[in-house]
Design goal:
By secondary structure, the chain is an alpha+beta fold. The protein has five helices and four strands; from the N terminus they run H-E-H-H-E-H-E-E-H. A four-stranded antiparallel sheet has the order 2-1-4-3, sandwiched between helices. A hairpin with a 2-residue loop joins strand 3 and strand 4. Helix 2 packs antiparallel against helix 3.
Length: about 140
């Protein structure tokens, strides 16, 4: 129960779609700063097969199970690709990987390798933990 204070407006209750949009905005903000993505994918040579995989996902079958049954590449272990660095993927794949909401699979899309459905599990911004000192820095430390 909230009491309205005279002259002030109470914030409108957020609708589920507004909450989803906020979550997507947070994900896209995280994606802008991220340079690594952890994802799974399903890869099929033919569009008809990727559409069958999508239908299975829509029935509620787990992504890992659908990837095992439909994916035509080495990522048959549930489609797990592990952590991928920005710049190591083909353009369309990378674009989807860094813009897709976390935990939701993408619509099928095409690259030069075939048709994909992607599930982004996490993103992170990694930094270089150690760099060797420059010659000038080594001179200073002596």
């Amino acid at each position: 129960y909230q009491r309205r204070v005279r002259g002030s407006k109470m914030p409108a209750k957020k609708k589920p779609q507004q909450q989803q949009n906020k979550a997507n905005n947070n994900n896209s903000e995280k994606a802008k700063g991220a340079n690594k993505v952890k994802c799974r994918h399903i890869l099929c040579e033919k569009q008809s097969k990727i559409l069958q995989a999508k239908a299975e996902l829509e029935k509620g079958t787990s992504f890992a199970e659908v990837a095992k049954n439909f994916s035509e590449d080495k990522a048959r272990n549930g489609g797990d690709l592990g952590w991928l660095a920005r710049g190591s993927m083909v353009g369309e794949f990378q674009e989807k990987a860094f813009s897709a909401p976390l935990g939701a699979y993408t619509e099928p899309f095409k690259t030069k390798f075939g048709y994909h459905i992607l599930l982004v599990e996490d993103r992170k911004n990694c930094c270089l933990l150690y760099t060797s000192p420059s010659p000038r820095d080594r001179q200073k430390s002596r």
